[in-house]
Amino acid sequence: AQSVTQLDSHVSVSEGTPVLLRCNYSSSYSPSLFWYVQHPNKGLQLLLKYTSAATLVKGINGFEAEFKKSETSFHLTKPSAHMSDAAEYFCVVRGYSSASKIIFGSGTRLSIRP
Amino acid sequence: NAGVTQTPKFQVLKTGQSMTLQCAQDMNHEYMSWYRQDPGMGLRLIHYSVGAGITDQGEVPNGYNVSRSTTEDFPLRLLSAAPSQTSVYFCASSHKLGQGLMKGDTQYFGPGTRLTVL
Question: Could you read off the pLDDT of B93-108 as tens digits, one per residue?
Fold first, then answer.
């Protein structure tokens, strides 16, 4: 069975400073990992995904994430925060088999200070 | 393509009433799932299906039923609504996992149904 833990429920950064949203996963086999973003009262948008190709994955809007198997982590980063990045971010894990569930983390709310 | 559609967008029920949330996709996806979203708890998987005629329980299945008679449709039924089922419900679909290009294929989400149970 797979699971995912987002280590921070809320992160606040100043505009123009780096963003780090932390995610740890648990999976019996090589998982697929995703980050989604949800802006207030909006649907879910895929930021990026890891599917066992390159361990450093680049996504939309300047976000990227690095898959570290030894640390079972898939942290999301951005070099310079923008006010429009304020949203809820979800780390998602999907197991290897065709019958695997897709499990969401509890979310991290990102606030951007002017 | 319409993608993933959900109806209704909003619904208010009284305790004990039953209703069905509809979900349909036109992308020929094998995998479909239902989530509920509650503040501070992310999206929790209710039920999922890897193909027509196949369904399985997720993390929070109690109080909900599903069926998958066609590839396109995956309705979620509340048999006897309770206030604890007040939530936003999302339906999602993707290709079934396999080797090569399909591995880890992305989920596509519907716009959500906001349900209030009084």
Answer: 988 765 444 455 678 8
- Find the residue in A nearest to B95 (Cα): A98
Give yes or no for a contact between A24 and A7, defined as CB atoms under 8 angstroms apart.
yes
Interface test with B, best of A97, A102, A103 (most B CBs within 10 A): A102
Q: Residue A87: helix, strand or coil by DSSP?
A: strand
- Of B75, B44, B73, B74, which is closest to residue B61 (Cα–Cα)? B44
CA distances from A111 to A11, A40, B61 (A): 6, 12, 33
* Residue of chain B minimizing CA distance to A46: B106
For B22: left if phi > 0, alpha if psi spans -120 to 50, otherwise beta; the answer is: beta
